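Supplementary Methods. Inverse-folding protocol.

Structures were first reduced to a discrete structure-token string of length 400. This string, shown here, constituted the complete conditioning input.
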């Protein structure tokens, strides 16, 4: 039986009821660890709530800059997007929170860690695998895999029975996760993919219908694949993402509604708000079109898919992910320059792209030919077509 457990605590429905449940079930001391990943919530209030509901200690860990530079930027440089749409906002936040959880466990002498992830979701894997990679000696407690509570309605009833203040009601039952990169929504009416998202569900990005009738323009600068400037001004990681969030959200940019394949084999429906992240992914991808050679670009697309899977599956602390980082660090060395974007009622269009390492040459691309000799094309095409010609030569009995 564990004597002290560090709970990854948010103050939401699930983690709020876990503190009294852990004390009832295991009679152990509970330490709350609140990871600040830019969720823009009152974390001091969450800390006080944890203590008021039975935690012996509560820590707030500021993870924002490490989250961006160590997790978001590498994923962005890799061009990793899961199943064409999902920008991995929850996925890459879990490993850094679990890492901080392990750190607090070591500081406080805890012998266990706990989390509020459901027993059929992806997050349980992300937390568990991270803890096993960093501290395999710690016991992992996942109440949703143990207790008799089987729905969010029952979790709400448990909270009421234990006089725990919560925001969720049976009418507002969405499960949400927010950080500096995104805001996710699951549950409620979203569980039926035939239902359109309720407009009242969205909390961050303005409806494109109500966005301004005058477009906004923004320029994002990169150095070696990493965002460094907005409209020519150098900004730190936290300030840069916050700035782009403030620009994109009012113009309806970054809403996504998707059905995704969970790691455990279930299809799930979620809605995501990723304003600044949408701008960054769009601009980065566009800058690559002029900076990467064809072979690197095409090969990178295959590795990007694998990188996205690793992040989604919770395999952050693995040799393969670290090895892929080495590839992308090399491949991104010349992805330096700036991309202009226009934002209008939920849409993003490219207005300009420039780079000191651009491989685009007007004297080659222009219809005026320039340095390109069209006569060279005939011999190239003849050789390129040989695999097509050889079967025809055999069937015709020729020896051309």
């Amino acid at each position: 039986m564990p004597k002290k457990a560090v709970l990854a605590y948010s103050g939401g429905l699930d983690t709020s009821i876990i503190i009294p449940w852990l004390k009832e079930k295991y009679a152990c001391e509970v330490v709350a660890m609140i990871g600040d990943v830019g969720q823009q919530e009152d974390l001091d209030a969450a800390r006080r709530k944890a203590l008021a509901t039975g935690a012996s200690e509560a820590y707030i860990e500021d993870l924002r800059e490490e989250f961006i530079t160590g997790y978001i930027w590498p994923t962005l440089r890799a061009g990793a997007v899961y199943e064409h749409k999902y920008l991995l906002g929850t996925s890459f936040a879990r490993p850094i929170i679990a890492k901080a959880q392990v750190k607090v466990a070591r500081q406080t002498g805890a012998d266990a860690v706990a989390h509020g992830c459901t027993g059929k979701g992806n997050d349980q894997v992300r937390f568990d695998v991270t803890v096993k990679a960093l501290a395999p000696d710690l016991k992992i407690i996942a109440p949703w895999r143990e207790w008799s509570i089987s729905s969010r309605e029952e979790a709400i009833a448990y909270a009421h029975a234990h006089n725990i203040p919560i925001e969720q009601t049976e009418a507002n039952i969405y499960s949400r996760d927010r950080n500096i990169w995104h805001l996710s929504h699951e549950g409620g009416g979203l569980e039926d993919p035939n239902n359109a998202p309720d407009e009242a569900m969205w909390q961050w990005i303005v409806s494109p219908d109500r966005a301004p009738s005058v477009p906004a323009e923004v320029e994002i600068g990169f150095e070696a694949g990493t965002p460094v400037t907005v409209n020519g001004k150098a900004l730190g990681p936290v300030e840069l993402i916050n700035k782009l969030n403030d620009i994109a959200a009012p113009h309806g940019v970054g809403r996504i509604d998707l059905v995704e394949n969970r790691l455990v084999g279930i299809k799930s429906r979620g809605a995501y708000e990723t304003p600044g992240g949408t701008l960054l992914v769009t601009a980065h991808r566009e800058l690559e079109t002029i900076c990467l050679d064809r072979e690197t670009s095409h090969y990178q697309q295959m590795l990007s898919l694998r990188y996205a899977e690793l992040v989604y599956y919770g395999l952050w602390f693995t040799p393969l992910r670290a090895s892929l980082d080495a590839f992308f660090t090399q491949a991104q060395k010349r992805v330096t320059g700036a991309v202009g974007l226009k934002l209008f009622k939920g849409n993003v269009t490219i207005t300009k792209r420039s780079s000191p390492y651009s491989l685009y040459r007007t004297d080659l691309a222009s219809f005026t030919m320039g340095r390109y000799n069209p006569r060279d094309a005939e011999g190239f095409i003849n050789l390129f077509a040989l695999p097509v010609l050889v079967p025809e030569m055999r069937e015709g009995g020729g020896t051309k």
